[in-house]
Amino acid sequence: MALAVSLGVAMLLLTLATINGLGAQNARGAWMATNPHSQRPTQRGGELSVTTPSLGSPIWWIVSSNQFENQLIVQIDVAATGAHPLIPPGIPSLPGPGQFYASPALAALLRTTPASELGSRFTGTMIGTIGASALPSPDDLVIVEGQSEHTMAEISGASVITSFVTSSSDGGPDTSGTTGLQIILAVLALVLLFPVLVFVGAAMRLSAARREQRFAAIRLAGATMRQVSVIATVEALVAAISGVTIGFCLYFVTKPALVHVPFAGQPLQASDLSIGLVDVLVVAIGVPIAAAVVARVALRRVQLSPLGVTRRVTPQPPRAYRVLPLIAGIAVLAYFVSVGRPTSASAQVQAYLLGFFLTMLGLVLAGPWLIMTGSKLMASRTSRVPVLLAGRRLSDNPKGSFRAISGLILAIFVTSVSVGTISTILADHGSTSSSAPASRTVTDQFAFTTNNSIPSVSQSVVESLRSIRGVKGVTIVYVAPANLRIDGRVPNINGLGGDLQDGLVSCAELASTPALGRCHAGATYAALGDDVAFMRVTRSVTVAASTTWPSAQPTTNVTKLPVQLIAVATNGSTSVIEKVQTVLDRDFMFESTTSLFGEVDAKSSQLLNELRTSSEVVTLASLLIAGCSLAVAMAAGVSERKRPFGLLRLSGAPLGVLQRMVAFETAGPLLVISVASAMTGFVASDLFLRSQLGLTLRPPGMSYYFIVGGGLVGALAMIASTLPLLDRSTRPQNVRME
Amino acid sequence: MIEAIEVFFDFGQTPALRGASVSIREGEILAVMGPSGSGKSTLLHCLAGILVPKSGEIRLSGTRIDTYPESERSSLRRDTFGFVFQFGQLVPELTAEENVALPLLLGGVRRNDALARAREWFGRLGIDGLERRRSGELSGGQAQRVALARGLVARPKVLFADEPTGSLDSLTGELVMELLVTAARQDGTTVVLVTHEPRVAAYADREVVVRDGRVSSLTPDLAP
User: Fold this and answer.
1) What residues of chain A, 496 to 525, have a C-beta less than 8 Å from chain B?
2) Residues of B in contact with A388 (CB under 8 A)
3) Are the C-beta atoms of residues B49 and B77 closer than 8 Å to each other?
């Protein structure tokens, strides 16, 4: 028992260290999520005035992001408002106009990449690098660029701040730990904690069977039940304390290996993985106390008399109604596919949360009933002794059998939902082949700016873009005026949007950027649906490319209209794409983010990939922990049935019969529950995708199958490692007859 | 039918059998008696192929079986021998009829056939109505009769019974012995019975005593 407890404690400590590590990683980058709340300086008689801060004078602040070769670059523009300005973490001083600090990784890129592809996006000279203590990961691309006060005052969205955020509370630009990500990662960590705690509990029950006969002998000697309880409690405490001590040693030995696991898409630093005093006390005190409680509870299930264990309380079999929440959860999700999703965002959150919660609850409740029903069916029809023995054992105590793998069911469900959803979204937006027009078209969308558009695009910008060798065409989509005459109805190609105005585009320009669609023959102008501006977060770009937009007849000077979108078609070369992005970022840094057309931008893509990676890691860990739990449960089961199985072997039953029985008993539920959880997760994901995004579930990538398959193999290997115990315990020569 | 010839066996430094020899005819019921620790169970285990003697021979119908590898001895125990022990032999997860059918299922008999053959024994041994009970729901005598049925259901050539009535009261023990002897005689099964109770040994055709690892006869061999 001590060894099993030590393994569980080590896993528990590693999980806590991971949670703390993610928090530390996130905290390092929290300052980048500073949400400006300070007042804008007021202007009186041509002079600016600001409130005096308590620590350093306030500074102008705005955070934006852009991409380079699909990597996110976080850009922070700052300007001092007075002497002794507030200084961001990681740098010795606030950069002035024409100066910037870059992270080491970005500095290296600036040195090796042509300026036209990267460096020209930023103004000024690099005067230093940002320290590692201010970066979530050493690979992060971050720049702190100095501007003048007047420049900052002109930027929409820039504000004055008086302090920095020390923990990411409102999700700013994506470090590896925005609030949303950390919450989700915390949930995943909790999902991982559950199987660890189940395993520790199983380890504590391991020696219960062996102890019962010994306690019966002690009762025969005259001890009361109370005295036996005390003995059992002390025994469990001693074993648990030994296990905790060994567990801490195992934790320190294995912790360095955890650094290489990219829980949030990026490896942690060794110093991030730490456990606090509270964590230590909770584990060091909580686990022995839990062991003592488990020992007392286990004794209460049996009646110990001096003649031995006389009666055991038979667990109540699970009833069929346990399946109802699962059915209800799936029904809720299916309902929204048929009638459409709720209109408001808050109603959508409530609806889908209800559906997923019911489904998860249903899986946990239905698990024992499914095991019982399946095993009864199996045992009632089989002629094979291993299946008969395993089926009876499982149907006798399905809750006990399910307990060892109960943590796994949630982990696989959550992972399947997240991997299925994320893979589908990324595949739908990023699945355009390298030859498709969308993969060669860079767009700068203004749909998410304060005014949903910029006033105009200067001719110099357009000429700069056209002058780049490799650019095939430039299209400017204007905001369509309210009284625009349109021939026919503008198609809504994704079922979403409708919040913006439609776009207006020159057909001559549109022909040069085929990814955005085409005009009717002979048309001069066309009206584009507003969902083109949402393309990065909505439906497949292939629909846009095949859309023929209705003709429009503007009555005003089109070039004076506000601009909604700029699209630049290229020859697809990475160099050309980065040059185009550099021009657009330089001129429209604070109004928009450039990306390849329809591609989920780097920020969302990074976040989604991090979530997917985290989910897969949690699943792998949960499978391995479930394997440990099952191995411990199997060892306990063999110990309990040593005599009848030994006599069975003595009577001529081959060892293989017992081994196959054990395989069915442990691996059977593991495989069935894993498949059922995964299938339920994918069904739930598909229903969500259909109703919310109008997408159909795409199969997840190979990494999911490798992770789940590898985890199952690892779990089965752990179970198989206890088979020698089965042989040793049941050898005919070792059976005691008296 | 089955015989041990100058068998020696020890458990480490402790000798259990020192040149034990016994021969059992086909259809005979032999009682092996002796004080606790005399080696009678060890002799039974050697005859049954559970233990391999350090020296000496075990022959079944003239063929040496002590030289068989464990897999063949295991097959022998499954296909040719039957066993009844003192206690703890029923699989708790299975019903009484499934326990009885176990040797048939292990031998590849289909489920329905195996259960049908198993149910016949419930009538023969006076335990009708207990087919669907679990072992925990049976009295000691009932459980031992189920165990007896399991030992005989495959119609073994030799039945080894090690203290079959050791955990039963005298009346129930006598009932079990009567049923065992009756069933064995009906099927012509050879029985090797280990006991320390003279009343139980009285059911046998012949009695031998194991003392200090050697065998001596208590009753003369009256076979022609």
Assistant:
1) none
2) 94, 98, 105
3) yes
Average pLDDT of the segment spanning A660-673:
87
Give the residue from A332, A334, A327, A336 showing the smallest Cα distance to A362.
A327
User: Which of A156-165, A187-196, B93-102 is predicted least confidently?
Assistant: A187-196
Q: Please give the Cα distance from B191 to A653 (Å, whole number).
A: 21
Residues of A (297-316) whose Cβ lies below 8 Å from B: 312
Class (C level, CATH) for B2-217: alpha beta
pLDDT digits (tens, 9 = 90+) for A558-602: 888 888 889 999 998 989 999 998 998 888 776 666 777 756 555
Tokens representing residue A212 in the block: 């019962």
- CA angle A424–A600–A115, rounded 5-degree value: 145
The verdict on A648 touching B (C-beta cutoff 8 Å) is yes
The answer to which of A391-400, A482-491, B199-208 has the lowest mean pLDDT is A482-491
Residue type, A619: T
Give the CB-side neighbour count of residue B77, counting CA atoms within 13 A: 28
**CA distances (Å), origin A712, targets A413, A668, A692, A699, A707:** 15, 12, 32, 19, 9
Kindly determine whether residue B51 and residue A382, on different chains, have CB atoms separated by under 8 Å.
no
- Could you tell me the residue ranges of all domains in chain A? 36-161, 314-428+602-738, 437-598
Q: Which residues lie across from A454 on neighbouring strands?
A: A563
Tokens of B87: 């206690």
For residue B223, count other CB atoms closer than 10 A to its CB: 8
- Do A433 and A552 touch, CB atoms closer than 8 A? no
Q: Are A479 and A453 in contact (CB under 8 A)?
A: yes
Helices (H) and strands (E) in chain A, counts: 21, 20
Question: What digits encode the pLDDT tens for the residues B69-124?
Answer: 988 888 888 889 999 888 757 888 899 999 999 999 988 899 999 999 999 999 88
Interface contact A652-B81, CB threshold 8 A? yes
Whether A654 contacts chain B with CB within 8 A: yes
Report how far Cα A176 is from the mean position of its chain's Cα atoms: 11
CB A130 within 8 A of CB A73: no
User: CB–CB of B78 and A652 under 8 A?
Assistant: yes
Domain positions in chain B are 2-217
Mutate to test the interface with B, among A307, A309, A383, A729 (most CBs of B within 10 A): A383
Query: Looking at the DSSP assignment, which residues form a beta bridge with residue A43?
Result: A48
Which of B78, B88, B98 lies at the smallest CB-CB distance from A388?
A: B98
Taking an 8 Å cut-off on Cβ atoms, the answer to whether A385 and B102 are in contact is: yes
The residues near A180 (Cβ < 8 Å, ≥ 6 apart) are: A171, A607
- Report the C-alpha gap between A251 and A275 in whole angstroms: 10
DSSP B193: E
Best A651, A657, A734, A737 residue to mutate vs chain B (most B CBs within 10 Å): A651
Contact B111 A383 (CB under 8 A): yes
Say how far apart CA A460 and CA A441 lie, in whole Å: 20
Q: Helix H segments across A67-148?
A: 104-112
Q: Rounded to whole angstroms, how far apart are CA atoms B78 and B82? A: 7
Helix (H, G, I), strand (E, B) or coil at B21: strand
Is the distance from CB of B193 to CB of B158 less than 8 angstroms?
A: no
How many helices and strands in chain B, by DSSP H and E? Answer: 7, 10
Tell me which amino acid residue A42 is: T
Could you tell me which of A301, A581, A269 has the C-alpha nearest to residue A441? A581
Is A733 in Cβ contact with B50 (below 8 Å)?
yes
Token pair 């160099």 is found at A575
Using DSSP, state whether A463 is helix, strand or coil: helix
CB–CB contact A733 B163 (8 Å): no
Q: What pLDDT sits at residue A213?
A: 62
